[in-house]
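User: I want to check something. If I give you two sequences, will you return the structure for each one separately, not as a complex?

Assistant: Yes, each is folded on its own. Here is the first sequence with its structure:
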Amino acid sequence: MRPLVRYRRSGHSQRMTQIDPIAVLTGDIVESTSLGRDRLESVFAALEDAAEELSLWQEADPKLTRFRGDGWQLVVMRPTIALRAALFLRAAIRRHGRDLDTRISIGTGAVDALPDGDLSGASGSAFVSSGRGLDQIRKTARIASDGSGPLRAATLLADTLTRGWSPAQAAVAYYALNPDRPTQSEIGEAVGSSQQNVQKVMEAAHLPDILTALNALETA
């Protein structure tokens, strides 16, 4: 699959401290013990590639940090795109195999410390909320968020609609979720398929409705 990237990094790095508010995504790999070391490492390689793409969305390093063997965490500097980012990260993994998946908890809020390195020394309400949310996520859920507003409602619906994504659907979603809004023909070129087939896959994956909801959430 060829990359579909039209974002460019700014030429400077940011020291991220005392940031308010942001979103924190905390996740773990589903049934990681059954994957074996090599496949687990390939999952994290896919996450790293997706985090690199996410850095272009927000022009800031998401600081993907691995915890506890199969756990991970990153920051989304624009909370409004947190759900889009979570779905994108899940698609990045799922497109490589039906048995590959991650659970993700979205926490939003203030940050007391966000060091230049990884997130091991980070603190703040967004980190607390995201970590607690992963501990409390329903067994069958894949994505959850804190609070009780529109983000939580949209997350519940998106989780239900995307839980059964096939690798082919996830591959299309990986490109369709790009906020630059690629055309179906561009997505088809990236995944090696026709525009007509991309349209069918998007409809089966509920992507038109999901993208409409994300756009509304992000511009509210």
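And separately, the second sequence with its own structure:
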Amino acid sequence: MFKALGDPARLRLLSLVASHENGEACVCDISGSFDLSQPTISHHLKVLREAGLLDCERRGTWVYYWVVPAALQQLSAVLAAADPTADDSDVSDTGLVTA
């Protein structure tokens, strides 16, 4: 999971998908935000999917991606455990560390 997020483009992609309208996006929705080719963006999305951070569904020509909530909660728990100064007030209802 952390290896997949180690690339700045993938970290930004995860953020864009998570914050996109309805919580899902296809390459066509987010490719304008990057100076990367569509195949490169698709590759990065595949790495995130294989790491369990995203899930997807094909709809016609496009593949739509969304964040797997359980993966974010697991990631947040690991990060919170690694920070001895964090307390329960730093974790939102979604399981994400807020501080």
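Because they were folded independently, the notes below concern the second chain alone. The mean pLDDT is 83. Residues 69-99 form one domain.
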